[in-house]
Amino acid sequence: MKALVLTLVSILIAVAVLGPLAIGPAGLELNLAHDLQSGYGENGFDVFTWLVYGARVSLMIACICTVISLSVGVIYGAISGYVGGLVDIILMRFVDILLAFPGILLALYIAAILKPGILNLVVALCATGWVGYARVARSQVLAVKNQDYVTAALALGASHARILGRHILPNIWGPLFVQASFGVSSLILAEASLSFLGLGVPPGTPSWGALLDQGVTYLFVAPHLVIWPGVCIAVAVLSFNFLGDWLRDVRDPV
Amino acid sequence: MLTITDLKMHFQSKAHTVRAVDGVSFHINAGETLGLVGESGCGKSTLGRCILRLYEPTSGKIGFQNQDITHLSMHAMRPIRRHLQIIFQDPYASLNPRMTIGNIIGEALQIHNLFIEKKTRQERIQELISTVGLRPESISRYPHEFSGGQRQRIGIARALAVQPQFIVCDEPVSALDVSIQAQIVNLLQDLQERLKLTYLFIAHDLMIVKHISTRIAVMYLGNLAEIGPSKELYEDPKHPYTKALLSAVPIPDPTHPRSRIKLTGEIPSPINPPSGCKFHTRCPYVMPVCSQIEPPLTALGKNRQVACHLYSSG
């Protein structure tokens, strides 16, 4: 499991980081001389080049959104759990409201209001992405904040900032990292979905979802336009799911 | 040194009020060890934590060195916390697993701005580590590399770092092996002598409490049943509950005649405690008055106090 997970994830990251450097931007250009059959898509772009550049865009968006969502969620959830009482009730009811919407629907709505663009896509995905982390962070804080070492810090007169920063936060990361790796895979999927619907990356930006969108018109004529980005999305999602499974098993080997 | 007056700690939930500590008064003299015994769930630990203001008491007063600390703010409390420390029962939960021993002990110094210079602080940490009998290289190790007894020593070093006067020992040995228990108790006694410490020693092992305490307070369901000098209380227990507790202590001599007072039933719930004397449901000497009126803690002889109708009417 470990070998498989590490291989898949490192290949994905290597392709995303180094791939575009290796093959150069030539295939991104319009080249009307080519037709659909020979590995070229609509407008004459090279499918392989788009897949490689798409890996970069898709993974980058997924990772940036995960980092932002994780940070916002952890801060929000930690404050809610640590302060407790009425503050906790109010903050968590707001989370419940957001969780009541299917995440992708809300992201779709926000993406539809904002103009297509990478920044707006990140905003749309993060707007719903952080709530899950907030819930997990809160429950972890609740579990940790009554530990004796936190009481000991209180008895020493430690400030709330010190207790949160040095005693609580360093001890709640485990489950959050597991959730984050599942989060990356669901964001890859969400980004692909939004781009497929034309609400994601701006036109002309290579992304797996955008490639699917363009290829679906030619599904029966040139199925490779759909199959390859589909395979890429599936492999990427599976890889990060495996990573999450593995991290969970490492943490809790029962 | 420390005076508790009618301290109450009620935990409020939606449906219930848990009367964990329900009107406790006593004082602790400088340099002595007050043993606090009682069954699980009688409010011993809650009382200990209230004294350190780790819980906000519902009512009552806590006086430390002639200063009322019951309502001090977190900020005003900080300099006083230096003098009031705690040692925990569970040596596995009481140390942050992500911090080295040096950082755990050093944090206490950092919070109170003691030994600010890096070199002197390191020396102070080393000194504390050797005081509690650990090896010098422990400073850069993590808690999981130590055994339960060693961890307990680290907890003691952390409490000692700020040079406290008063330490609440919250069942400090009940999670340890018997052989280790003796080591830790001896360490605590040595430290008390050397550093002129005052202890509130919470425990349910009566022999250890007898060994270490100057005076003993017996607690039942949030109230004090009896308080008095260790020796007198063991030789001549007054309160029926104390008698029952002491008769349950095993005597390592099979020929010694024993008369056990067996208590029936469970300790009642602190959510809905019995009326009058809380012990009347299990007391072998129960009288009609016991379920009506709660007996106050009244003086009996020179230094003893007992809360029981058997003695109050005279």
Q: Can you walk me through this structure?
A:
The complex is a heterodimer of chains A (254) and B (314). Chain A has 254 residues and is mainly alpha-helical. Chain A is 75% helix and 0% strand. Chain A has one domain (2-251): MetI-like (MetI-like fold). The longest helix of chain A is centred in the first third of the chain and has 37 residues, at 47-83. Chain A is elongated, with a radius of gyration of 21 Å. The two termini of chain A are 15 Å apart. Chain B has 314 residues and is an alpha/beta fold. Chain B has a domain at 2-83 and 164-236: P-loop containing nucleotide triphosphate hydrolases (Rossmann fold), CATH 3.40.50.300. Chain B is 31% helix and 22% strand. In chain B, the strands form 2 sheets. In chain B, strands 6-7-8-3-9-10-12-11 form an 8-stranded mixed β-sheet, sandwiched between helices. A 4-stranded antiparallel β-sheet of chain B has the order 2-1-4-5, covered by helices on one side. The two termini of chain B are 31 Å apart. The mean pLDDT of chain B is 91.
Question: What is the global morphology of chain A?
Answer: elongated
User: What is the third-level CATH name, the topology of one domain in chain B?
Assistant: Rossmann fold
Report the CATH C-level class of chain A.
Answer: Mainly Alpha
How many strand units of chain B? 12
List unreliable stretches of 5+ residues of chain B. Answer: none
Shape of chain B: globular
**Terminal-residue CA separation of chain B:** 31 Å
What does the radius of gyration of chain A come to? 21 Å
The number of helical elements of chain A comes to: 10
- Total domain modules of chain A: 1
Structural class of chain B: alpha/beta
The largest sheet of chain B is: 8 strands, mixed
* Number of E-state strands of chain A: 0
The CATH topology of chain A is given as: MetI-like fold
Order of helices and strands of chain A: HHHHHHHHHH
